[in-house]
Amino acid sequence: MCNLYAMLASQDSTRRHFAVDPARDYLGNAEPLPAIWPKYEAPILRLGEDGTRELVSAHWGFLTPKVSAKTGKTLKPDAWNNARDDKLTKSGLWKDSFLNRRCLIPGTSFREAKGRNPAEDFWFALTGTDPRPLFAFAGLWRGGQPGIEGDEGDWTTHTMVTTSPNKLVEPVHPTRMPVILDPEDYETWLYGSPAEAAELLRPFPAEKMRIARQGVGLLTDKGEK
């Protein structure tokens, strides 16, 4: 389960990487984000109503209502920040978004923790000449959160699709890793049929990734080698 990632790429390089017209960049003056936690806002690339790529901000995690089992009082909603690849067409939480609202989630690294008291943090990035090459997680999005009142009910949210881990991630997290898409597959994930998109749900090649940082208490990634 991934519950922390970073997005350090500049706004200009993000537009170029994802082929977004500056007029369809709605991020404002986006700053580097060295630690993105569930419910935090972060950029996503989605298709606008006319089918054109656009960059917008979305909170991480689809929200669902939560009630105290003891008192019956409404609690802060749960944020579902990961969507299992084998549940996308089976779960009511994910199905409509997988069929109709897939997105790309820009990122430069993600963190997994191993062990306890204290846990050791591992930040995974792609290989390349840059310290943190820009890439895209496979994502889903939705506007509005059913059953949630107040400002949170109006949020646009995104979630990250996960799959089985590759050989680099497996020793740290033996069951899941985020789906990272090759740039040549962006078009298919955004515009393809559900069957075509499902073919992309596989572990990213381990040889194209590296452990960029490793240690205790590394809850941000500022991009150092």
UniProtKB/TrEMBL annotation:
GO terms for molecular function: lyase activity; peptidase activity; single-stranded DNA binding. GO terms for biological process: protein-DNA covalent cross-linking repair; proteolysis. The keyword Lipoprotein does not apply. It comes from the Bacteria. It is an enzyme of class 3 (hydrolase). InterPro entries: SRAP, SRAP-like. Keywords: Covalent protein-DNA linkage, DNA damage, DNA-binding, Hydrolase, Lyase, Protease. Belongs to the SOS response-associated peptidase family. PANTHER family: ABASIC SITE PROCESSING PROTEIN HMCES, DC12-RELATED. This is Abasic site processing protein.
